[in-house]
Amino acid sequence: MTGGTARRHGEGGFTLIETVVALAIMMIILPTLFDAIFTLIATSRSQRERAADNQTMVRVAETVKAAAYDPSCSKYNPDALPRVQVVCAPGPTLTYPLQLVTITILTLAGAQGPSVVVVKASR
To answer: What is the 3-state secondary structure (H, E, C) of 62-111?
Structure first.
C-alpha cells in the first residue's frame, strides 16, 4: 500500500481528526451540561428555603390565631423569630373592633418575602 494510510490487521484506533471532532463536541456539550446541573442545584436550594419560610409563616399565623386579642401586638410573635415581621393595623369596626395582623417573612437580604394577613377580633 502506498501513502502510509493503510492500517495493519489488528491495529484499531481513532485518527487525529476523529479525536479533534470528538473533543470539539465535548467542549460544546459539557459546559451546557454543567450549567444545567448548577442551575438545578440553585433552584432546589431556593425552593427548599421558600418551603421553610412558608412553614414558618404558617406556624406564626397559627400562633396568632390561637393567641388572645392583643391591641399592642406584642404576644403575636412570642418567640421573636428572626426574619419574621408581625405588623398590626386596626381593621374595620363592625359590632366589635377587628385587627389585621400581617405576618411577613423577610428574605436573607432583608426584602419582603411571602406574607399572610390574619384577622383578629377583640372578643
So the answer is: HHHHHCCCCCCCCCCCCCCCCCEEEEEEEEEECCCEEEEEEEEEECCCCC
pLDDT digits over 18-33, tens only? 999 999 999 999 999 9
- Collapsing DSSP to helix, strand or coil, 115 comes out as strand
Q: Which residues neighbour 14 within 8 Å (Cβ) at sequence distance 6 or greater?
A: 22
Rg (CA), the chain: 31
Distance between CA 97 and CA 75 in Å, rounded? 18
What amino acid occupies position 114? P
Cβ-Cβ contacts under 8 Å for 25 (sequence gap 6 or more): none
pLDDT digits (tens, 9 = 90+) for 68-90: 888 777 777 766 778 888 888 88
Task: Please indicate, yes or no, whether the overall pTM of this predicted structure exceeds 0.90.
Answer: no
Cβ-contact 56, 84 below 8 angstroms: yes
